[in-house]
Amino acid sequence: MYPPGYAARPFGYGPPRPFYPPYGPPSYGHIPPSFGRGGEEKRRPTLLRPQTFDQYMSQAEFPRNPEEDEALNKAMLARNQQIAPSSIEQSSATTLMTQVKAALETIISTQSIPSAKITEVKEVGSYKTGTMLTKKNIADLVLVFSTLPTHQTVKALGEKIVEILKETQSGEIFGVVPRDYGCEVAGTQAVLRLMITVPSELPLQLDSELHLKPEILKKNMDALRHAHWFDENAGQPAIKMMVRIIKDIKNRCAGLQPLDIWTIELLSHYCVTYTPDRNPLPLADAFKRFFQLLSAGFLLHCAVAVADPCDPSRRINYGFSPADADLICRTAQFICRLVIHEKFERLFGLKNAHKDVANENETDDSVNIAPLKEAYFDEFLVNKPDERKFGPRVTV
């Protein structure tokens, strides 16, 4: 038996290596030595996959200068105030969440819909993590069924919730719309998405015309795991503020659209907390580190990316196609150049927020920052990635 925290390795591959918390060991290969005549050892060159360059892991060689980041930090705080939801928006989302939860408790206790066997009701998404954006008053709720959910059951559940809301909240307007992930309950001031899933141990013997799609059920269960992990590990205000700001940049940047919310949350946590001295980075440094890692190829299929803490068999760059990873990489490089030249008004949308962040040149009297051209061409790709790992992602 190996000590706790160590991973066993195949025979001939040396002693066990320790895991590197909190994201697992680097995924590099190792070639054992070979022996020639007379017992002479002939070592083959060791095959190493170099990790993505990260200057914040070598602070002795790249010391930080807080004075240089004052303008960036000021711009980030100003943008966060603009995009944070108002107290009225938060209150309306909380009110709708409370009302729908009460309606669900009534349905569960009275068993008014026998086919809806609900075992858990959990908050997820930006409402749960505290990273909501203004004018996007949407909350998410995951319902765990003990039986395979059908489209008819989900539709009946949504209609019953709206019926109860209209009875208890007279004078208010409510509606329900079926969605592929479940259904959507809308009030006058907020929207609540009901995401349906089942326990992972439940066999998925599904009829595509009768039941919800298995990839949607898995995606909704992943959302539940992600919200639980974020709630336990990412309570620092700097992480939440950074997630909100990057989500806002993504909404104004076509080149960042392949980034999913879980990647943003996990990488934001990594950039703030994962340092050699275990001291969290300031907000401005963590923000620069986020886009420096992306621009250095952190999500490319050949990169040594961090492990997914909710699924150790996967890494954060799994699921991005080479074209999407290349698009994110060159967009991040353009954003890094905007940061270097302190073009914060364009980056954070302080002026002309409707413009795309990275699809047009940024010019002034002394500099011209141009978007980078595509570097990925499928017909010339030699080291093609495994499509089972780097196939298209399912988004909700």
Automatic annotation (TrEMBL):
Entries under PROSITE patterns matching the protein: 25A_SYNTH_3, DZF
Record GO biological process: positive regulation of DNA-templated transcription
Residue ranges of domain DZF in the record: 44-390
Keyword Protein biosynthesis: no
Primary residence: nucleus
Keywords: Activator, DNA-binding, Nucleus, Transcription, Transcription regulation
Keyword Transit peptide attached: no
Organism domain of life: Eukaryota
Organism annotation: Bursaphelenchus xylophilus (Pinewood nematode worm)
Protein name: (pine wood nematode) hypothetical protein
